[in-house]
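Protein in question kept in full:
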Amino acid sequence: MTVRRIVEARKEHIPFVAWVVMAANRSHLPKGMWDINVGGSEEDVLRYLEVLADTEQVHWAHYSLFKVAEVDGVPAAGMCGFFENELGPVSMMAGAAEVNQKIGRTPEDIAAGWERSKSIMGIIMEHEPGAWVVEHVATKPEFRRRGLVERLVHEMLEMGRKRGATTADIGVLIGNDPAQRAYEKCGFRVVIEKRDAEFERVYGSPGARMLRRAL
């Protein structure tokens, strides 16, 4: 009998969390922000994200924020949730600075990576104060269409409620229709759409949508 369970991410999940962050940022596209910023091979990107997932500074790519759906003990899907006022851009910048120091990334490497990837800023969304932000959603291809994302979303929204949130936000790149439909099935509705020509040139999607629901 297949055993499915939702667990809080542990240290041993760090390689899987790194994959989730990479895959979620790619969305339906060949490359995402971390591919473009870090550069190199997929292995290089995953190594960077593994270090990022275990920094002293907690941020929205840190393993401790994630829930993982396991199928027969195998990590199959994951996502995280957080309040932006607690873990906003400053926390990610501090986490990335730790990684850059640990792996020996030079100031020139950092500047070049930002130059390649900075058009992501054209689609950054603003969240309402106190909104529970659901982020970094991805499922391994062999475990898709099993309802794992729905179960994870349910658990993550319940966590937001317990933390006092009354609304939840989740983002999707324009063109990732399966993801948008999955979120709408969970009660989310599009509230904001941002398009940016430079982002489309670099990444291959016209922009992003933010979906919101009450908790």
